């Protein structure tokens, strides 16, 4: 590391290893290949496999002498070993809910769901920072068009990183809207952003529900967020 080329070389190296693994999977585990999903962003890897057979754990290996990989599915173990021997895979334990990029993912009773991760909310819960966090105040000198674009982009990310389910999306929108309201954003900015969301990204029913949620938050300064808990 340290060279300007290092990040690109590292990503290419990982992509090459993953390509070899996919060929291995198709050849040696054809039945599981269609039920294996994995995505990597830089050095964060998220993998799922649907396997109705209760396979035995493989035990410890030389790459993880601490035994941290002893309890994972053999397919994941194979994937880890396709990467360069100098790459160590750190397995993150979780209790059913874990963070990946901008999503909080929950695995429960063979169902996988994801909800957009509100970093500001988490900081407030842990009392790390006060109310005014990393969202620009509407009264700042930044061009209004830029702030509108930030709201639009954030709304797209919420929809992209959450299940298309009102029970999942609406709590995120409620908490996010109260934050924007506290930062002086007009309700009209939110409503305009909702209208501009493309049909491919949202159902009309969910669009109406989000719009109604925003209206309710702006009309009631004591809006009860307790009715819309987040999964984290």
Strand content: 5-15%
> How do the strands of the widest beta sheet line up side by side?
3-4-5
Whole-number count of domains:
2
- Let me know the average pLDDT: 82
How many helices does DSSP assign? 8
Contiguous runs where pLDDT drops below 50 for at least 5 residues = 126-133
List the helices and strands in order: HHEEHEEEHHHHH
Helix share of residues?
A: 40-55%
What gyration radius follows from the Cα positions, in whole Å? 22 Å
Rough shape? elongated
Main sheet, how many strands, which sense, barrel? 3 strands, antiparallel
Distance between the termini: 35 Å
Total beta strands: 5
Give the helix/strand class. alpha+beta
Topology:
Blueprint: H1 6-28, H2 30-33, E1 36-41, E2 44-49, H3 74-82, E3 97-100, E4 103-108, E5 111-116, H4 119-125, H5 144-160, H6 166-182, H7 187-196, H8 204-219
Antiparallel strand pairs: 1-2, 3-4, 4-5
General description of the model:
The protein has 232 residues and is α+β, with helices and mostly antiparallel strands. It folds into two domains: 6-82, no CATH class; 97-227, no CATH class. It is 44% helix and 12% strand. The chain has helices at residues 6-28, 30-33, 74-82, 119-125, 144-160, 166-182, 187-196, 204-219; strands at 36-41, 44-49, 97-100, 103-108, 111-116. A three-stranded antiparallel β-sheet has the order 3-4-5. A two-stranded antiparallel ribbon has the order 1-2. Helix 5 (144-160) crosses helix 7 (187-196), helix 6 runs parallel beside helix 8 and helix 7 packs antiparallel against helix 8. It is elongated, with a radius of gyration of 22 Å. The model is unreliable at 126-133 (pLDDT under 50).
